[in-house]
Design brief:
With 139 residues, the chain is of the alpha+beta class. The protein is built from four helices and eight strands. The strands form two sheets. Strands 1-2-3-5-6 form a five-stranded mixed sheet.
């Protein structure tokens, strides 16, 4: 059985091969609880994303802890990184990416029903146009 970090590295390598620069934040042990960072941070053509990585053996509802959710929101609010949840169902379907806005509050956590989402190619296509100040002014 593969470790959680091996899936994070796999996704980072896939994004890198698509033209992203990606940093994986090793988050294990007591020291990790002090730092507020997502699993992956990616940059492409002037745009930033913060990604939390999840895997599941079968398609089912995915839960994100309140802390993980709040970390992604922090990166969005303070750094401008768009927050995403990347999920790999381990039955050969590959990666799907979901905007944080798709999650529903569920008590002390947030839940995501695995419907839709973007493939890696669709996700990459969203970020394949260079961000410019003009584009921000028009938004």
């Amino acid at each position: 059985m593969r470790s959680r970090s091996s899936y994070e590295r796999e996704l980072a390598q896939r994004l890198f091969s698509m033209g992203w620069v990606v940093m994986r934040a090793p988050a294990s042990g007591a020291a990790a609880k002090r730092y507020l960072y997502p699993d992956l941070v990616g940059l492409k053509l002037g745009r930033a994303v913060a990604i939390e990585v999840k895997t599941t053996k079968v398609e089912r509802t995915i839960y994100l802890s309140r802390r993980q959710y709040e970390i992604l929101k922090l990166w969005e609010e303070r750094g401008g990184a768009e927050p995403w949840l990347a999920v790999k169902v381990l039955d050969g379907r590959g990666w799907r990416l979901y905007e944080l806005a798709r999650l529903e509050e569920a008590g002390e956590s947030y839940r995501l029903h695995l419907e839709g989402g973007l493939t890696l190619d669709q996700f990459d296509a969203r970020y394949s146009v260079k961000a410019t100040l003009t584009a921000f002014a028009e938004a």
